[in-house]
Design goal:
single chain, alpha+beta, FAD/NAD(P)-binding domain, 3-stranded antiparallel sheet, 12 helices, binds flavin-adenine dinucleotide
């Protein structure tokens, strides 16, 4: 939608093909219905993909300020919350509507319920009648000078991004780096998750790839934030942001360990001191009350069980060895990651059209005149507005390039 608006503003003639009844269905789901469009912290480390220099080049060509001005130009008032940028009314539908109405007012041809079945680069025929691209849909065949492919990924298929864009790109000769869910929850092996499900707590989450015998551990990534414990494992922003690393490693057959620091602001020695003073002050209390006021009760009980401390053990009988194990478990609550939420449970995808086969204007180096933008490319961003920022910047870069070359699409 952004690519179409920018192209028309630059005097191109544009047709949008959308196979859903309406455009922008996924946008309506974003930011829990509030649409986290962008972020004040645009450090490049929030983006991941097969060629960081290309991602950087695109974001430099079209920085967040430009895309935010674009939205303001469409009439969208925005506000910041904890660095995240949202529509002022906190309704994703407002973002969809400003885009939709602008598209209508600019006179863009929009064909909805038009499934693109193939995009074909035409070889100029002898009579020179056909050139550019033929786009074949279930509503007919159309000719264009240029094509911008913005078909999204395979996440949340019911929003329309069903992965068909990957096949269209492959048919044109592009390499598609194996798409996989990113920004998803992780499933863990341990059987205690049902007893602690629903807990949300500040934590530092680290993921390690373990060698087959688990002798050697390699840190994949580490991040702090709100950890959410589910019936099947772990979720929350730090887990989601790190999830694509685990997904890739699990798909490669690696073993993954998660290590949760449940009191990231306190060091282990202080935790042990705290446990000791707690025991001294309340010697007759039972172990199941040891962590009350510090950790959620079920989590404290789970830690006791993992330390082989009976829940009805009087605190005064706990030994130094117990205290040491309890302190270690709070700082290193290890879990075995065995799976992940699939495409329909994830908020973005890693993988996609290789960045090595597009230039800094996102034009294909294999098929001149073909451009890509958004999540179809091998780029994934962290939670916090980075995926929509990528979609916006890449769409504007691809659309502007048409103008620079003076061609019509
Ligand atoms: C639940 C959820 C919450 C999210 N929250 C946020 C957030 O707050 N902030 C953020 O930055 N990101 C968020 N994201 C990610 C963000 O929505 C996506 O990265 C972004 O929408 C990608 O934009 P896109 O235009 O590339 O693809 P999409 O938005 O997926 O759009 C692709 C469009 O192409 C159409 N299409 C696909 N194939 C065909 C075909 N063959 N023929 C015709 N039409 C086709 C689809 O129907 C779809 O309308 C969230 C995602 C989800 C699922």
């Amino acid at each position: 939608m952004i690519a179409a608006i920018v192209s028309v503003q630059n005097k191109d003639e544009v047709t949008i093909f959308e196979h859903m009844p309406r455009m922008g269905k996924k946008l309506l789901l974003t930011g829990s219905g509030k649409c986290n469009i962008s972020n004040t912290d645009m450090d490049i480390s929030h983006f991941h993909g097969g060629d960081m220099s290309r991602i950087k080049a695109v974001l430099e060509k079209c920085p967040p300020d430009v895309t935010l001005d674009f939205f303001r130009g469409l009439g969208l008032l925005m506000r910041e919350r904890k660095g995240g940028l949202y529509p002022y009314c906190e309704q994703a539908s407002a973002v969809v509507d400003v885009l939709r109405f602008s598209i209508r007012d600019l006179g863009v041809d929009v064909l909805t319920q038009a499934n693109v079945l193939s995009v074909q680069k035409l070889i100029p025929s002898d009579n020179g009648l056909e050139r550019g691209f033929a786009v074949t849909t279930d509503q007919g065949r159309f000719l264009f000078d240029k094509v911008i492919m913005c078909t999204g990924s395979a996440c949340n298929r019911n929003t329309g991004s069903d992965g068909s864009g990957y096949s269209l790109a492959k048919a044109l000769g592009h390499t598609v780096i194996k798409p996989a869910p990113a920004l998803t929850h992780l499933k863990c092996e341990e059987d205690f998750f049902a007893s602690i499900a629903g807990i949300r707590t500040q934590a530092n989450v680290s993921l390690y790839e373990c060698s087959k015998d688990c002798g050697k551990e390699t840190l994949l990534g580490s991040m702090g934030g709100e950890l959410q414990i589910t019936r099947s494992g772990i979720s929350g922003i730090p887990v989601m942001n790190l999830s694509f690393l685990a997904v890739r490693a699990l798909d490669d057959g690696q073993k993954i360990k998660g290590s949760l620091d449940l009191l990231p602001d306190v060091d282990e020695e202080d935790i042990q001191g705290y446990i000791r003073s707690r025991i001294d002050n309340n010697p007759d209390r039972l172990a199941d009350e040891l962590f009350i006021g510090v950790l959620a009760k079920p989590l404290g009980m789970c830690i006791c069980k993992r330390a082989n401390v009976g829940l009805k053990t009087p605190c005064k009988t706990l030994t130094s060895a117990h205290i040491s194990i309890l302190g270690k478990l709070i700082k290193k609550f290890d879990v075995t990651v065995t799976g992940y939420g699939g495409f329909d449970e994830s908020q973005s995808a890693c993988g996609g059209v290789s960045l090595l086969e597009v230039d800094d204007d996102l034009e294909s180096t294999i098929v001149p005149g073909l451009f890509f933008a958004g999540e179809i490319l091998d780029v994934n961003g962290d939670c916090g507005g980075y995926n929509l920022q990528w979609a916006a910047s890449s769409a504007m870069v691809a659309a502007r390039r048409h103008h620079d070359s003076g061609d019509m699409i």
